[in-house]
What does this fold into?
Amino acid sequence: MNEEKRLNEIKKEDSKNRPIFFIVLVLLMFLGGVCGFLVSYKDQWLISVFNFLGTYSQIGSIISTVCIFLASAISITVGWIIYAGAKKMWKDEASRDDNWEKIERKLSIATIVNSAGLIVSFFFYGCAVYDVRDNISTTIPGAEFIKVIYGISFICAIVLVMIFAFLSFYQLKKIVELEKIMNPEKKGSLYDFGFKKKWYKSFDEAEMRQAGIAAYKALLIVNLTCMITFVVLIFIGMVVKITVFPHLAVSVIWVTQNIAFGVESIKSNKIQ
Amino acid sequence: MSLNNHLKEYRAKIGVNQQELGAMVHVSRQTISLIERGDYSPSVTLALKLARVFDVKVEDIFDYTDDGKDEANE
It folds into this structure.
């Protein structure tokens, strides 16, 4: 196929998609304008929400500590139920082969629940210890009582997140153990800091392909999530002083994942 | 493009399960299962390894049928 013919094909494909692309772009710009207008229209409401959160940050910390407990309890319990189901299926040697995919699926779901629970708990931990030097206004009814509870909940938050991190690690260890029993070719110990690298190196060609597809789809999802979060932060930042740190955090994640994916794609050309 | 295979039949002939066959060609049980179900087309290296295990030609295990569909668009 000569270059000119190929170029015509590209132009034809572009011209087919171009109108929709620009229509969507105009609609998004319009939507952005509407959102910007709504944000400026409701700016006092947004400011009062942030002021409220700032004034009652110690109450927020207490609630966050409770949320750490809830997130941990839910994720560990759900994770154990799923793991126990997988283990039960594995123990039934007669139907083990028929249930193999189901067991693998259950273990994957248990891992997702485990990591999601840990991340959510870390978020609530961040909320619980946020603005630790802030003093609650003495004009608020029950301020002294809230201060005492805040002190207790602050320590509870640290203890809870440590307990949960340990339980989460233990659960992950059990999941990895069963995976390794099922797949003897899998290598790596969770106590090894290079576990993820060793685990990845023990993948065969089909698993590598599976990981590649999953990584690309995850890239698309995280890109979209970063873009939406960034737009929301821009709108909020227009009327409320949230500083530029949230924008920075999202940008760091966004740029890191894109550069990392690009660099790793180039590197993977050398993989046999 | 359609890649059919007789892996299950050959595996039954030598009397090994998916896990044992996987160990013989250094892949996971899941990969053998995916190939048998037709959900994964193995690499040339793996196809050759499998053929060597059964002492047959690759074409004896795998059949390629061109059904007019482009794999990339499937």
Summary: Residues 44-54 of chain B form the longest helix (11 residues). The interface with chain A takes residues 17-18, 22-23, 26-31, 33-35, 40, 42-43, 46 of chain B (CB under 8 Å). Helices of chain B lie at 7-14, 18-24, 29-37, 44-54, 58-61.
